Amino acid sequence: MVVLLKKMLTKSSPISTQSNLFHSELFSQLDVKDPLIQLANTINWTVFDDAFEQHYSQDNGRPSKPIRLMVGLLFTARKPL
After folding, report:
1. How many structural domains is the chain composed of?
2. Measured between alpha carbons, how far is 56 from 52 in angstroms, rounded to an integer?
3. 51 phi, psi to nearest 5 deg
């Protein structure tokens, strides 16, 4: 008997406009011309959230990693060098 359990969904948090001590320092080190950063800024991430949230539960199990992280890692793994 196969039982599929849904993981608990962690909603993607929108990028906060609240100042963060480390965010500005990290952001200043990134090259905004990098193709991966440009790609990340053009993707509508809510489409992926809406498509995959049906596979997650709100109250069962350990909270998941953000869907944006998982999809982004798949894009990175498939990107030819």
Report:
1. 1
2. 7
3. -70, -35
Q: Is residue 37 part of a domain?
A: yes
Output 17-24 pairs: Cβ under 8 A, ≥24 positions apart.
none
Q: Give helix then strand counts, H and E, for the chain.
A: 4, 2
Indicate the burial class of 20 (C-beta count within 10 angstroms; 0-12, 13-18, 19 or more): exposed
9 part of a folded domain: no
How many other β-carbons are positioned within 10 Å of the β-carbon of residue 72?
17
- The model's pLDDT over 33-75, given as tens digits with 9 standing for 90+, comes to 988 888 888 999 999 999 998 888 878 888 888 888 899 889 8
CA distance from start to end of the chain: 42
pTM, full prediction? 0.59
pLDDT tier for residue 2 given thresholds of 50, 70 and 90? very low
Amino acid at 4: L
